[in-house]
Amino acid sequence: MSIIIPSNKINFQYTIGKEYMYESNYVEYQGYYYEINNKFFVGQEFNTNAPTLIKMNFDNINLLKINPKTSLYSKISNTSIVKNELPSIPLIPVSGDKYFAKKLNSNPIRIFFISKDIFEKNNGKNSLYSFTKIQFDEEWGFDITPQNKKDIPEIDIFLKEYSSNPE
User: Fold this and answer.
1) Which H/E stretch holds residue 55?
2) Which is the most buried residue in 49, 59, 109, 117, by most CB within 10 A?
3) Within 13 Å, how many C-alpha atoms sit on residue 102's CB side?
4) Residue 68 — pLDDT band, cuts 50, 70, 90?
């Protein structure tokens, strides 16, 4: 029994290269491909076993992991090729704990608000970021402790923007 996909659900195209790569080995792909539900597959016709393609978007690809000289480490360590950027959230000025992340080795310095869930999943486990939690009071603002400054030394500079009493 073959699967029939409605023509309005599948989009066949051709790429001359520099656009997609195989998801399995990150080798550049040139040729016919099709798209279903925002996923890309090799071929001129639908095939349930078709290799998957991913866009060659170097903003979300770790080039060290596709370099033949460093890819072995990636395979041995079972590290994903997609960079894991933490999502930031806006400040909600309601009293309670506020959570922060600082991306390490980033120029310029990048500090941002994160959710409690992201904080709990990553604090102490994600070596690409440093994290801290600061108590916020609607009337008094942020209560920055020495530990917060140890976690993220620039946190007081970052939070001046949110202070009601600029010094």
Assistant:
1) strand 52-55
2) 109
3) 21
4) low
